[in-house]
Amino acid sequence: MKALLKLTNEQFEYWGNELKRSTSETIKPGDLMDYWFIMATLAQHGPNFRILKKPAFEDMIPHLKGETVRRHAGLAEKFGFVETVKSKGTTYLQLTPAGQKLWQTRW
């Protein structure tokens, strides 16, 4: 169990450092996990890495209220990792090319 926890912490630390390096904005350490959930969810929905925006706020981060997820998604947009796109009258949240690059770096 200790080895698994050590590996998980190392991987998350690496990802968090890459995220911080990729933006000039200040990212609160306590919020990193929330951004990870948002971006990981989008990364699983290729090829466009997008999901319907409104329902995403209810399902994207376990145990957080939709309002909190919406705030974190808005900050992730400000940081340049996700974006809101409209296609055929439907609104999606999707990874930007910069957000996609974070997932392709080491995984």
- Could you tell me the CATH topology label: Arc Repressor Mutant, subunit A
**Span from first to last CA?**
22 Å
Number of domains: 1
Strand content: 5-15%
Structure, explained:
This protein has one domain (2-104): Orthogonal Bundle (Arc Repressor Mutant, subunit A), CATH 1.10.10.10. Helices cover 57% and strands 14% of the residues. It has helices spanning 2-21, 32-43, 53-59, 66-79, 97-104, and strands at residues 50-52, 82-87, 90-95. The chain has a three-stranded antiparallel sheet. The model has no long low-confidence stretch (mean pLDDT 85).
Structure at a glance:
The chain has 107 residues and is an alpha+beta fold.
List keywords for this structure.
57% helix, 107 residues, alpha+beta, globular, 14% strand, Arc Repressor Mutant, subunit A
Topology summary:
Elements: H1 2-21, H2 32-43, E1 50-52, H3 53-59, H4 66-79, E2 82-87, E3 90-95, H5 97-104
Antiparallel strand pairs: 1-3, 2-3
Helix pairs in contact: 3-4
